[in-house]
Amino acid sequence: MVSIQPTSKVLLITSDVDVTIADALEMAGFKVETFNNVTDTENNLKLLRPDLILLYSNMTGDHGLNFCQQVRASEINPRPIIVFLVHEDNPDERIEVLRAGADDVISYPLSGKEIAFRVMAHIRRRQETHVNQLTGLPDGVIANNVLEHCLTEINDWAVLSIDLDNLRVYNETYGENRGDQMIKALAAVLKSVLTQDDFLAHRDSDDFILVTRSENAEAIAEEICRRFDFIAPRFYTQVDASRGYVIGVGPKGIRRRVPLVSISIGVTAKGRRNFLSAVEIVQVSRDMRYLAKSKSGSDWVSDRLRLVASEHEQIDNRIKILVVEPDASMSLLLRDTLEMEGYMVDVAHSSSEAWQLINNWRPELILLEVDISSDGFNGWELTKKVKQDPNLAGIWLVMTTKNPDHHTALDCGADLYLPKPFELQFLFSEIRYLLRARIRSGVLL
């Protein structure tokens, strides 16, 4: 079975049948492609995507100037290392080759074994320049190369796109240094589930990618969620960890209940779609990850099952918002403005009416004026009733009130506390923030 992680590739250009160097490179673990002229090498450069090119200087005729320019213009990332072999009797040639653009010069005659180890040192330094400084893992450039290798060489692979939810608010509350420690902890969790053939990269910030075999993908995703949820509460104070959220502070005194940091994972694999590039693989796995974000807590979504276009077209994708507001003019203003924003809106003027609509209509978000009541059933009790019902608890609840006690509002279950008076533009920006995951989940799988 071909390894998910590609073997470092060396192009050896020589006019002589010199198997000594090629054998030494293969013994050192490199994949060697041999050419006997520079033109064939230039024509196959993009296809082969070597890590290092090793050639004799007397084969170019211009100290390697045109060849070095061709390699640098090849748009291979990271660029192949260029190493020339120059006879020890030609010291001036060493200078000319370096001036032409070579990365290094090796004098020969020299044992094939020493040449192989010098090549190894160059490739090691090249790999070290493409690591994430926070975690020491390969970066996005190396990850893309691994995915391209999987597309062309591997018959069985799966990709997990992984990141943290609510990290921004965690950084605002505890500081970015603590946030970096959280990212390092995630990296440690990911390393702990790897098998020998798996590949892990840290693309950016809290964005990771893991490549494994397709039969293992969903089980690994589940185990990552389990292990991260076990350690995540340790990064919070005892008060925040015990109540299960932190209080995010926004402009104009807005307070929001923000869940603890969790993890979202998107999974895709070979054969599930007609992938043509590494970019497409990353995009699909991220689409799956966005779907996972619409769930509460750490979770994963795989694209094993897909919606067909006809099924998708029959779905009304508009987000449903229920406005619970006793003031008729205010409820009309909110309804008209939200509908202009593209939402499907209904209005209730009492708690009892709202409760009936919530159960029958199932909105994604409730905009509730808490100072509302009917038959002793007020907005505070409505909030608790919604959040205590397992079938309704996932509905976002935005509480608008003049009550200054935001702790009571959030403790009874509100996801967002919005003190009156407020500006509509702030309301809409906060609604878009809450509904972002559900908007993204409208992507056709």
Total tally of structural domains: 3
CATH architecture grouping of the largest domain: 2-Layer Sandwich
Number of DSSP E strands: 19
Q: Could you list the spans in which at least 5 consecutive residues all have pLDDT below 50?
A: 306-314, 439-445
- What percent of the residues sit in helical stretches (DSSP H or I)? 40-55%
Count of helical segments? 18
- Our Rg estimate from Cα atoms comes to 29 Å
Mean pLDDT, as a whole number? Answer: 87
What topology, given as strand order, has the largest sheet? Answer: 9-10-19-18-15-13-14
Roughly what fraction of the amino acids lie in strands?
A: 15-25%
CATH homologous superfamily caption of the largest domain: Reverse transcriptase/Diguanylate cyclase domain
Instruction: Give the end-to-end Cα distance, rounded to a whole number of Å.
Output: 30 Å
Structural class: alpha/beta
Largest sheet at a glance? 7 strands, mixed
Which fold name is given in CATH as the topology of the largest domain?
A: Alpha-Beta Plaits
The shape is: elongated
